[in-house]
């Protein structure tokens, strides 16, 4: 777009692309040229402000996606360590299975119980802060003291995760926040069933967290205008739905593994044992 002065007259032209070629078109002259040029300039400024607002929204969604991805990975790591400590194992991203009773044998679990619990708490806090070097250490403790690990991690996980998720999205509406936390606890209980094992309760609590995260993102997207639905927002929703489906799949696999009778080797023979895992 351009204003041109020739022989004391003002002419206003627009540059438009048609059929792959840029052409210059006459619009107006005189006072109309100045008025139309001013109007086009204001429209360009409005469009630029809209694009800037969209870029800022996209950046916020992109940062939130990375945060949610790291948080989901941290929860997955803790659940994996907990299941391994409780006697479950998976190979090549396959189904979760129970190990033999011999693999679950642990010596010295009761001795020095308090130092073990304190060490578990220190390593969990380090993982939450992003220290990946604490993962193998916590994994070793979960295998050597599975019961202490299960009691310590299982007890803190839902209270911390549910509250922080709801508080981050509902910082001022305390009633809605508490109701949402209660709902996540109900979902966890429904998935775990009555008198669940520690392993199934741990997986159900993780699935309830994924359920809450997924619905929060979908509700926010539903409240936004359709033309404001950004690519990064859709990406966050897709990732949250994937985490929910994977967590539900883990719950189903643990339930199926626990429904099968365990086997243990006794002097060269194999006998079945129906004692609950936890």
Discrete helix count: 8
Number of strands: 7
**Helix/strand order:** EEEHEEHHHHHHHEE
Q: Considering DSSP H and I runs of 4 or more, what fraction of the residues is helical? A: 55-70%
Radius of gyration: 29 Å
Apparent shape: elongated
Major sheet: order of its strands? 1-2-3
The biggest beta sheet reads:
3 strands, antiparallel
Low-confidence stretches: 101-111, 267-278
Class derived from helix and strand content = alpha+beta
Mean pLDDT value: 79
Integer tally of domains: 1
- Span between termini: 75 Å
Strand percent estimate:
5-15%
Overview features:
278 residues; alpha+beta; 3-stranded antiparallel sheet; two-stranded antiparallel sheet; 7 strands
What does this structure look like?
The protein has 278 residues and is of the alpha+beta class. 66% of the residues lie in helices and 14% in strands. The protein has one domain. The strands form 3 sheets. It has a 3-stranded antiparallel sheet. Strands 4-5 form a two-stranded antiparallel sheet. Strand 2 (9-18) and strand 3 form a beta hairpin. Helix 1 (31-85) runs parallel beside helix 4 (134-144) and helix 1 (31-85) runs antiparallel to helix 7 (198-223). The protein starts with a strand and ends in a 5-residue tail after the last strand.
């Amino acid at each position: 777009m351009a204003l041109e002065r020739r022989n004391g007259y003002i002419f206003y032209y627009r540059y438009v692309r048609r059929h792959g070629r840029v052409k210059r078109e006459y619009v107006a002259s005189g006072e109309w040229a100045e008025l139309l040029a001013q109007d086009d300039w204001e429209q360009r400024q409005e469009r630029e402000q809209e694009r800037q607002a969209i870029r800022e929204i996209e950046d916020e969604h992109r940062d939130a996606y990375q945060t949610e991805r790291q948080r989901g990975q941290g929860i997955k790591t803790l659940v994996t360590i907990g299941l391994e400590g409780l006697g479950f194992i998976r190979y090549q991203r396959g189904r979760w299975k129970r190990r033999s009773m011999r693999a679950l044998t642990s010596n010295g679990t009761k001795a020095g119980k308090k130092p073990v619990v304190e060490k578990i708490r220190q390593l969990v806090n380090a993982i939450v802060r992003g220290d990946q070097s604490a993962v193998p250490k916590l994994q070793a403790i979960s295998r050597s003291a599975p019961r202490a690990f299960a009691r310590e991690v299982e007890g803190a996980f839902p209270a911390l995760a549910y509250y922080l998720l709801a508080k981050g999205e509902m910082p001022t509406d305390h009633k809605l926040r508490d109701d949402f936390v209660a709902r996540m606890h109900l979902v966890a209980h429904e998935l775990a069933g009555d008198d669940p094992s520690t392993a199934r309760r741990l997986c159900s609590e993780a699935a309830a967290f994924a359920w809450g995260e997924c619905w929060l993102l979908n509700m926010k997207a539903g409240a936004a205008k359709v033309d404001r639905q950004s690519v990064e927002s859709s990406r966050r929703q897709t990732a949250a739905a994937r985490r929910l489906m994977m967590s539900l799949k883990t719950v189903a696999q643990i339930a199926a593994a626990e429904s099968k009778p365990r086997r243990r080797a006794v002097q060269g023979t194999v006998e079945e044992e129906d004692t609950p895992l936890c």
